[in-house]
Specification:
The complex is a heterodimer of chains A (304) and B (307).
Chain A lengths: L1 H13 L6 H30 L1 E2 L7 E2 L3 H7 L2 H35 L3 H12 L2 H11 L6 H8 L14 H26 L3 H9 L4 H29 L3 H5 L12 H11 L3 H25 L9
Antiparallel strand pairs in A: 1-2
Helix pairs in contact in A: 2-13, 4-8, 4-10, 5-8, 6-8, 8-10, 10-13, 12-13
Chain B lengths: L1 H6 L13 H28 L3 H4 L14 H6 L5 H6 L9 H31 L6 H10 L5 H14 L6 H9 L3 H12 L3 H9 L4 H12 L1 H17 L2 H6 L8 H11 L7 H35 L1
Helix pairs in contact in B: 2-16, 6-9, 6-10, 6-13, 10-13, 11-12, 13-16, 15-16
Classes of the chains: A mainly alpha (304), B mainly alpha (307).
C-alpha cells in the first residue's frame, strides 16, 4: 500500500500539475452519494438513536444513557454476549486451524485448481441453504448422522434442539461453509513467503514439521492477523444460520447478539434499545480488531 | 498473486517427491476434508430425488429412496396438488419462479450498479489528480469497519420513510452505488494500468470520459468480471437485508422464501425431498457461475485476502 502510494506521488510530481477536480467530482459523485446516504448518515443516526427511546411507530425521544444503563443489567443481553463469544471461539478456533492445515496441504501436496474449487464449494451456497442442508443431515429422526451414530451403537443426538449441542452445531455448520474460503486466504498468504526460505531450511536438514512451526507459521503471522480480523468480525455477526434453524432456542442458548438485536428492533419495535445494542457490538468489534492487529503485529513481517 | 502464473509452468520440471508416511497421512486428511466438503451436496441431490414419504423407511441408503423427480416438479410448480400430497409434499403452492425472478432482479441490479459506479469512483481515486484524494479514499475505506447490523437499522428506517419497503429500489439502493470493497478492489487494478496508454489517448484529444469508457473499462474486463461475479454471489446469498425490506410476495428473494418454506413445513414429517430440491435449485445459478469462472473466483479470493 505505502509503496504504491509513494510511487504514485513521485509519478504525479514529475508531470505537469493539472488538477482534474471537476471531472473527479463527477466520477465519484454516485459513490459519494451512496457512501453518505447509506453508510455515513446511518452510522451517525444509529449512534443518535441509541440515546433515544424510539418505538418503531413513534418518534425518537432523547433519554441520555438510559438504554445503556438498562443493557448493563439486562440478563438477555449478557446471555447473548456469552452465547456469541462461545460461538466465536468455537467457530474461529476450528476454522482457523483447519484453514491453516488445508492451506499448507494445498501448497505442499498439489496445485490442483479442481481441489481448491471443491473445497470452496460450500462457501458458494448461502448461509440459508447451508443451514437447511445440515438441518437435514443432522435431523434427529432420520438424518444421516444420527443413523451413523445409532449404527455405531451410541445414542442419537438432537443436534439443534439440545442445549449443549446447539451452539457447537451452528459453529460447525459455519466452519463447514467457510473452511475452504479461509484456507484460500491463508494459501494466498503462503504464496508471499519466498521459496528460498524453505530451500534453506531443507538444506539445513529441517523436517517439514519443524519448518512449519519455525518458519511458515511465524512468517504467516501478519497475514493471519488480517484474516482473523475479517473472520472474527464476520463471526460475531452470525445471524442467518440461527434465524433459519433454532431461532434463538432452545431456551436462549443460541440467541446470539445479532439475533437479539433483530428481535428487539424488528420483533418488539424497540429501535432505540436495538440501536444501543448495535453500538455496543460495533465498539466490541472495533476494540477486538485493534487488539488483534496489535497482538499479532500485523503489517510487520519477520522477514526483514 | 505472483505465484499463480508460474504454477502451471513448473509442472513438467517438478521433481518426483517420494511418498513418505507423512505425505500419505497428509493426503488422507486432505481427502477426508474433500469428502466433508462434497458429500453433503451429494446427499442433497440424493434426497431431492427421493420420495419424501419413503425417506424414513431407508434413511441411510446411499441411493435415492423410491427414485422420482417429483420433488423438483413440486418445487417448480409442475406437479398437481394431489401428486404433491401423495409424495409427502405440503400441497401448498410455492412461487418458486417468482422468487427466482426476484433474486435475479435483486442480485443483477445490485451487481450492475455497484460495479459500474464503483469503477467510476475507483478511476477517480486511481487516475485523476485532485486535492484530498487520498483522504476521501481513506474515509471510504473506513466504512469497511462498520458492521452491517449497525447501519441496517437506520437504513431500514430510511427506506421505510421513503415508502420503499417491499420494493426493489428499497432493497437495491443501499448497495447500488458503492461498497468500500468494490472501490478498493478496482482501484488496485486501475493503479496498475500503464499510464502511457492513457497519455497517448489524451494527446489524441480524448477527455477523461472517453479515456474511462474506451480505454480503462475495456482494459479491465478481467477484474471487472471477477468483481461482478463476487458481488453477484454475495448478493444472491444475502439474507438479512432482503428479510428486513423485501418481505412481500413480489419482492421476496429465494433465501428469504426458503427460510419461510422451512419454518412452514410440519414439524412431524417435513417434506425433506421438497426442501432439498428447493435448496438445490436455488443454489444452481451460483454453481453454474462457479463452474464457468472457477479459476477467476479462486484467484480473486487469494487476492482480496492478501491485500
Amino acid at each position: 500500500m505505502v509503496s504504491t502510494r509513494t510511487l504514485e506521488h513521485s509519478l504525479d510530481t514529475n508531470r505537469k500539475r493539472t488538477s482534474d477536480l471537476r471531472t473527479a467530482l463527477l466520477f465519484i459523485a454516485p459513490a459519494a452519494i451512496g457512501f453518505v446516504v447509506f453508510y455515513l448518515v446511518p452510522a451517525v443516526r444509529g449512534v443518535y438513536f441509541s440515546f433515544t427511546r424510539y418505538n418503531i411507530l413513534g418518534t425518537p425521544t432523547w433519554i441520555g444513557t438510559e438504554n445503556f444503563e438498562k443493557i448493563a443489567v439486562d440478563p438477555l443481553f449478557w446471555n447473548a454476549m456469552w452465547v456469541t463469544v462461545g460461538y466465536v471461539l468455537l467457530n474461529i478456533g476450528f476454522q482457523t486451524v483447519i484453514a491453516i492445515v488445508l492451506a499448507v496441504m494445498m501448497q505442499r501436496l498439489t496445485k490442483s485448481i479442481a481441489l481448491r474449487g471443491a473445497l470452496l464449494l460450500p462457501w458458494l451456497i448461502s448461509n440459508v441453504i447451508a443451514a437447511m442442508l445440515w438441518f437435514w443431515l443432522l435431523d434427529y429422526q432420520i438424518g444421516l448422522f444420527n443413523q451413523v451414530i445409532e449404527w455405531m451403537g451410541a445414542s442419537k443426538i438432537a443436534f439443534f434442539a439440545d442445549e449443549t449441542w446447539a451452539i457447537p452445531t451452528i459453529a460447525f455448520v459455519n466452519v463447514w461453509r467457510h473452511m475452504g474460503y479461509t484456507a484460500l486466504l491463508v494459501f494466498a498468504g503462503l504464496q508471499t513467503i519466498p521459496k528460498y526460505i524453505y530451500e534453506a531450511a531443507s538444506i539445513d536438514g529441517a523436517s517439514e514439521w519443524t519448518s512449519f512451526w519455525k518458519m511458515t507459521l511465524p512468517l504467516l503471522r501478519p497475514v493471519l492477523a488480517m484474516i482473523l480480523v475479517i473472520t472474527v468480525t464476520g463471526s460475531f455477526q452470525v445471524f442467518d444460520t440461527v434465524a433459519v434453524t433454532t431461532r434463538g432456542g432452545p431456551v436462549n442458548v443460541t440467541r446470539v447478539m445479532q439475533y437479539y438485536i433483530y428481535q428487539k428492533a424488528f420483533g418488539e419495535g424497540q429501535f432505540g434499545y436495538g440501536s444501543a445494542l448495535a453500538v455496543i457490538l460495533f465498539i466490541i468489534l472495533a476494540v477486538l480488531a485493534a487488539i488483534q492487529l496489535r497482538m499479532l503485529r500485523a503489517g510487520e513481517s519477520d522477514l526483514a | 498473486m505472483a505465484n499463480h502464473a508460474d504454477t502451471s509452468t513448473d509442472a513438467p520440471v517438478r521433481k518426483r517427491k517420494k511418498m513418505s508416511a507423512g505425505r500419505i497421512l497428509a493426503w488422507a486428511v486432505m481427502i477426508a476434508f474433500l469428502i466433508l466438503s462434497l458429500f453433503p451436496f451429494y446427499w442433497m441431490l440424493r434426497t431431492a430425488l427421493s420420495t419424501s414419504r419413503s425417506l424414513s423407511s431407508d434413511p441411510s441408503s446411499l441411493l435415492p429412496v423410491d427414485f422420482t423427480f417429483g420433488a423438483f416438479e413440486r418445487v417448480l410448480g409442475l406437479a398437481t396438488q394431489e401428486e404433491a400430497i401423495a409424495e409427502g409434499g405440503s400441497g401448498a403452492s410455492v412461487n418458486f419462479w417468482l422468487y427466482l425472478r426476484n433474486s435475479v432482479i435483486y442480485a443483477g441490479a445490485v451487481t450492475l450498479g455497484q460495479v459500474f459506479f464503483s469503477a467510476m469512483a475507483a478511476y477517480a481515486f486511481a487516475r485523476l489528480r485532485w486535492p484530498g484524494r487520498n483522504l476521501v479514499f481513506g474515509i471510504f475505506l473506513g466504512a469497511l469497519l462498520v458492521p452491517p447490523i449497525f447501519t441496517s437499522l437506520p437504513n431500514f428506517l430510511l427506506i421505510k420513510n421513503l415508502g420503499l419497503l417491499n420494493t426493489f429500489p428499497g432493497m437495491i439502493l443501499p448497495t447500488f452505488l458503492m461498497t468500500p470493497f468494490a472501490i478498493f478492489f478496482l482501484r488496485q487494478f486501475f493503479l496498475g494500468i500503464n499510464r502511457e496508454i492513457e497519455e497517448s489517448a489524451s494527446l489524441d484529444g480524448a477527455g477523461p470520459w472517453r479515456t474511462f469508457f474506451r480505454i480503462i473499462l475495456p482494459m479491465s474486463t478481467a477484474p471487472i468480471t471477477t468483481l461482478g461475479i463476487l458481488t453477484f454471489i454475495t448478493t444472491w446469498n444475502d439474507y438479512f437485508w432482503p428479510l428486513l425490506v423485501g418481505n412481500s410476495e413480489g419482492t421476496k428473494v429465494l433465501t428469504v422464501a426458503l427460510g419461510v418454506f422451512r419454518s412452514q413445513t410440519p414439524a412431524g414429517s417435513p417434506d425433506w425431498a421438497g426442501l432439498m430440491a428447493a435448496t438445490l435449485v436455488a443454489a444452481v445459478p451460483v454453481l453454474i457461475l462457479f463452474f464457468m469462472f472457477a479459476r477467476k473466483i479462486i484467484d480473486s479470493i487469494g487476492y482480496s485476502g492478501s491485500k
